Amino acid sequence: MVNFSSLKCLSDSLHALQRFINTVFRDLIVQGIVLPYMDDIVILSKKESEAIDRLKKVFKVSSDYGLVIMFGKCQFLHRKIEFLGHVIENNKLFPSPSKTKSVVHYPEPKTTKKVQRFLGLTGYFRKFIPAYSVIAKPLSDIKRLLSILMQNKKLPLTS
């Protein structure tokens, strides 16, 4: 992962920063060599020799545009990295342990708003969990029911 210091002037406008990075590294993005996000760039490769060749290309483009690389913030030739809340390892994407930990330790939701927050948090994992919507349906149904009851001012219910 490569990090740049010379882009701090663009950091006030995140959209401008991302557009700049996408423009500068467009050819490498199209070729599937890099995955940029703001001032960080993941260099994708399967072999160490390929990684070094691709790293040289990133250094060349960076030099051509006068970008200063923050080597102290860089990670080179890692087989496993954490990037944007994901772990990338062996060409596979996993949720980061910090994300799964937040779900495991989430307090039991007891209000409509807390159920909604929990569903929002777990919705992040839908790409990792087959049939997520089926699993989450009971909570979604409870949230919907509580919402309807609150609108009708029939809480609390007595039997």
UniProtKB/TrEMBL annotation:
This is Retrovirus-related Pol polyprotein from transposon 297. One of its GO terms (biological process) is DNA biosynthetic process. Signal peptide: none annotated. It comes from the Eukaryota. It holds the Pfam family RVT_1. Residues 1-88 form the Reverse transcriptase domain.
